[in-house]
Amino acid sequence: MPFSVHIRRLCPQATLQPSEQQGPLGTLGPVWEPSGDKAPITPTGGLKVCGVFRSEEQKQTQVVFMFELRMSLQSLMVALVMVMVFLSPCPGMSAPQGEPDDEAFDVENYDLNSEDWENLDVNIYGDSYDYDDLDQEIEVGTIAPDTPSPASQSTAQHYEEEKTVPTLPPAPISLDFKGPGLFGPETGLGMPTCLLCVCIGGSVYCDDTGMDQIPPLPKDTTHFYGRFNKIRHVKNTDFLNLNKLQSIDLTGNQVSGMDEDVFRSLTQLQELLLADNNIQVLPELPVTMRRIDLRNNKLVNHGLHSEGFKEMSQLEFLYLSSNNLDYVPTPLPLSLRVLHLQDNNIQSLQEDTFCDRHDRNFIRRNLEDIRLDSNPLNINLFAQAYVCLPRLPVGSH
User: Fold this and answer.
1) Model pLDDT, residue 77
2) Is 199 exposed, middle or buried (0-12, 13-18, 19+ CB in 10 A)?
3) How far apart, in Å, do the first and last CA atoms of the chain sit?
4) 150, containing H or E segment
């Protein structure tokens, strides 16, 4: 803060008079000095302002302060000048202003019919070009090719030997279950199985997807649903290595053929649902079956394995309705509870179809639901065939 301000604050009655002070760079300008009765000069050279003495050291401090203030103002002015210089357009970067010099061209007095045009020699402006050279034909193959040196030939031959890769025979096609990925194995349709289908736990749902073949299934699949598609054939590789598979549902497809051993390796299979297809021959099934549904197909008796159901000690439901069967496929396991054979071509029953002809006391207690209706069969004529049953079969009388 300027010293004069301090004086005004400390002693309002004092009068400030300007005086010149000399500094290192010349005159610093007016320095306000207090005067009057309230500011007598003391014998020691100090100035007393309202009882406060101002010594020579304080004066020097004021001089230094004023010098620093002046330097600050000068620096500020230099900075403003520099800013104005940088912001102003550079004359060297812009086009020169002014009107073109018309005297140098004198367009108004220019005479196009002067003799200078008649005596003008075109050849002085450059060498003339011989256009006859363009008629020369370029002969192809007249230049002998460069003969490579023996060293370069050996190097090229060695390089070709390094680049030559022996051709290997194609690997056999097999399903890779070692690295199925996050969404199951690849289907060959551009996406994994679990993106084409829905995978929840061990169940894979591929219903109504329009596929015409069974996709590769994850190794831990327990239930597969491929209903209402366009599958025509079931291959023996479709369920390869699926040791946990318990249920297969291909209802509503166009299956007309299956490989003989397609189900043989499925040791945990319990349900096979193949209704509404075009099946004529049923392949061998594992003995672990509990439910078999072959309704609305084209099965005939010689398309079933002889005694194919005998060893299925856990079979409970057997649906064979709406086929072309001529007789009941026997022998039937004792575990069977439901047998549907309606809408076939069965015309007769044997005494041992359901009972044991050698044991008159034999009773088939589990078989409670037998359907024989819509067959050319009168069940009243074959009473000995179902005397061992707890309930009479449903059929025509």
Assistant:
1) 86
2) buried
3) 129
4) helix 150-163
